[in-house]
Amino acid sequence: MTARETVLGRVRDALALAPRPEVTVPREYRTGRTLPDGERLALFVDRLTDYRAQVHTCTADRAAEVIADVLRERGARKVGVPAGLDRGLLAGYDGEVREDDSNIPAPRLDELDGVVTGSAVSCAETGTIFLDGSADQGRRALSLVPDLHVCVVDLSSVAAGVPEAVARLVPERPTTLISGPSATSDIELERVEGVHGPRTLDVVIRTDV
Amino acid sequence: MSSTFLGMPAAPPRSPYGTGNLRGERKFPAAAHDELRDEQLRRNLGKATRTIRGKRLDVTAELPDWERLRDAGSAIKTDTMNRLPELLQELERKVTEHGGTVHWARDGVEANEIVTRLVQETGSDEVIKVKSMATQEIGLNEHLTSRGITAYETDLAELIVQLADDKPSHILVPAIHRNREEIREIFRAAIPGVDPELDSVPAHLAAAARAYLREKFMTTQVAVSGANFGIAETGTLSVVESEGNGRMCLTLPRTLITVMGIEKVLPRYQDLEVFLQLLPRSSTGERMNPYTSMWTGVTPGDGPQEFHLVLLDNGRTAALADEVGRDALNCIRCSACLNVCPVYERAGGHAYGSTYPGPIGAVLTPQLAGMHAAKDDPNSSLPYASTLCGACFDACPVKIDIPSLLVELRHQHTEQSGTTAEKLAMKAAAQVMKRPRLYTAAQKAAGAGRVVAGRDGRISHLPPPFAGWTDSRDIPAPPKQTFRAWLASAEGAAELRAAAEEGARKPGHDGEQVGPGRNGTHVSPGRDAEQVGPGRDGTHVSPGHDGEHVSPGRDDEDGDQG
Ligand code: SF4
């Protein structure tokens, strides 16, 4: 017998030995919530700030300017972008922009000062941004290795709660949930921001997209 | 599919004796005794559990539907266990469809061999690891070392534990027993090229770990991870973390090997909407943990191009065969039960001798690895490592009734063992032991009593059959009762039996106040039972006292917050 047959046989035996309790899953928790734009934005910003992410809100026509300011302030001279990112977003930036390519070995991404990406979905209630590897977000390594992540979020993509956000995901895509910069509390429970992921997370929210 | 066995189903085996990390060397009281002398450990633990407890209560209280999420989480897990054979096969099919390879391991020894072979096939002699309880349980690192493969733990706490050649003491914060000075010494001794002037500021210590591991992330070709969830419907695996070491391991290497206990499967992708709320809030007390990664097989041009999933039994099917004990498999390893447990807070994680400490460890460990009576198994002491105060049940996001499980295990233990003093004592409590639900219900009633008590902290009586509990009673619970004394618990067991019998005998009897004993250890009506609330030393955590009970109105409005 293969291990597979053995384990599956054991599972069936176990279930035959002890009766299975009847169960139906009660999904009485909150789903399908909507919130007016203003409330959703306020909630999302509140939660992001709580994680000590830097938040910038602007209209779409000012996004390039805001992004350029952020990159300048952070001293980022060399930034990476996924191939599908709207390059207009970097129109105000005067540093070097490198378009990512999956043939570039991940360690070389360490040479970048930062990265600018889009995002797939966000959740206001938890301050979580979901990346799913779409063309404007790129492969996972791109938003992981550089020390600064500037992430563009459109307010229309911000869902109220977790169920509403999860419902918008495409399961098969490699998905990363980001809630603030990386952090650890492993030493005497003292919070330290920035361990292995980007130590700085700047979120640029376009309120009219 | 239902006809693979002929005749009687056979009881599945436990994790093989003498393998992995599911058994300590000494029984709990002896191990705990030493830990109790460690002041540093107790201070660290006390601070940690208090802090996390407070945060958890804050973020769970802010969700108006928290109780409904718990109900859903509990039911999803029960449904999962009912349908485990089909769900595992569905998961296998989906992972395979998306370019992954699925392996099955009967036990830890087999899983270790599979992982070793997979690593060897890549030609690499080192792996980077994401904190994983399953690989800790099977002793994977030790096994890899014996085969000439170096495993680097990348979670900061796990790194500290590994560099110190130590063992984890908490599910969530495994190095919580170490203070910053100790960690600095560990780093200075064990990290090659570390700045000899390194001080003990946590941010600097974390930076030293970052620098050390960065190079490993960039160069190591194989990663080994565990999984928090595996979605049958889509083949999606998930790892929940904070530091980004998980993302590094799951993204940068060429090959990813994930070891997952078979009980971690979830039926639908949609179920994540429940667990992504339950887990972070119960675990770190955050609305969401910094990073969660989800991946489905292999994605061309993004992440590891080779993915292996090792599905591990190692005693899980033995637990599943136990009608009561199988609930322990519902655990999502949030560690909330550790943080509310008065025994854990005093004894620390090491005393349990297992990868799984605390209340859940006390039930899961014997379920997975057994309590071998003939061998005087240290695991047989674990079901007694509890005051049965019920705080763990109240904290558990998937509503595992740990006290009932403990009582059932005590019963099984006395059934197995010969006639010993312990057996005689337990026999006296047989009435209660045979009716764990009654016993827990009595406890819950006692806890609820404090909640329903009026302003003056008095309640007149509890309904039968628990009325006996509310009688004024003379409990031998001296103020300075030692840990070992109440741990031995024969006295407590006899008390429980008497109380339950009385409760059954005297319906409608008016009683007095219930509350924890003076030192906060016994949950039984105490001599000073006029007092409502925590024990006098203020450390006792019991249902109701720290606001965990849902107050009326909290759970019945659907509005959004904020
Ligand atoms: S038993 Fe419940 S509270 Fe304890 S770790 Fe598991 S899920 Fe969390």
Query: What is the arithmetic mean of pLDDT of chain A?
Result: 95
Rounded to an integer, what's the Rg of chain B over CA atoms?
24 Å
The CATH C-level class name of chain A: Alpha Beta
Q: For the record, give the distance between the C-alpha atoms at the N and C termini of chain B, rounded to a whole number.
A: 50 Å
H/E element order of chain A? HHEHEEEEEEEHEEEE
The CATH topology of the largest domain in chain B: Rossmann fold
Tell me about the biggest sheet of chain B? 6 strands, parallel
Q: Say how many strands of chain A there are.
A: 12
Report the C-alpha radius of gyration of chain A, rounded: 21 Å
Report the helical percentage of chain A: 10-25%
CATH architecture of the largest domain in chain B: 3-Layer(aba) Sandwich
Uncertain segments of chain A: none
CATH superfamily of the largest domain in chain B: NagB/RpiA/CoA transferase-like
Distance separating the two termini of chain A: 58 Å
How would the global form of chain B be characterised? globular
**Count of helical regions of chain A:** 4
Strand order of the largest sheet of chain B: 1-10-7-4-2-3
The largest inter-chain interface, given as chain pair and residues per side, is: A-B, 87 and 109 residues
Classified by CATH, the class of the largest domain in chain B is: Alpha Beta
Protein name (chain A): LUD domain-containing protein
Organism (chain A): Streptomyces solicavernae
Domain LUD (chain A): 42-205
Pfam families (chain A): LUD_dom
How would you portray this structure in words?
The complex is a heterodimer of chains A (209) and B (562). Chain A is globular. Chain A contains four helices and twelve strands, in the order ααβαβββββββαββββ. The longest helix of chain A is centred in the N-terminal third of the chain and has 15 residues, at 3-17. In chain A, strands 1-12-7-4-2-3 form a six-stranded parallel beta sheet, with helices on both faces. Chain A has a single domain, classed as 3-Layer(aba) Sandwich (Rossmann fold). The model of chain A has no long low-confidence stretch (mean pLDDT 95). With 209 residues, chain A is α/β, with parallel strands linked by helices. Chain A has helices spanning 3-17, 37-50, 63-73, 162-166, and strands at residues 54-58, 78-81, 96-99, 114-117, 121-123, 128-131, 148-154, 158-159, 175-178, 183-184, 192-193, 200-206. Chain B is of the alpha/beta class. Chain B folds into three domains: 28-318, NagB/RpiA/CoA transferase-like (Rossmann fold); 421-480, no CATH class; 484-549, no CATH class. Chain B is built from 23 helices and ten strands. Chain B has helices spanning 28-36, 39-61, 66-82, 84-97, 108-122, 133-137, 140-146, 156-163, 180-190, 202-219, 245-251, 272-283, 316-320, 336-340, 342-347, 358-369, 391-395, 402-416, 421-428, 430-433, 436-452, 483-488, 490-505; strands spanning 100-105, 126-129, 150-153, 222-225, 229-231, 236-241, 255-261, 265-266, 291-296, 306-312. In chain B, β5 and β6 form a beta hairpin. Chain B starts with 27 loop residues before the first helix and ends in a 57-residue tail after the last helix. Residues 1-5, 424-436 and 438-562 of chain B have low confidence and may be disordered. Chains A and B meet through α1, α2, α4, β9 and β10 of A and α2, α3, α4, β1 and α8 of B. β9 of chain A pairs antiparallel with β9 (291-296) of chain B, so a sheet runs across the interface. The structure holds iron/sulfur cluster (SF4). Iron/sulfur cluster is lined by residues 282, 331-337, 360, 395-398, 400 of chain B.
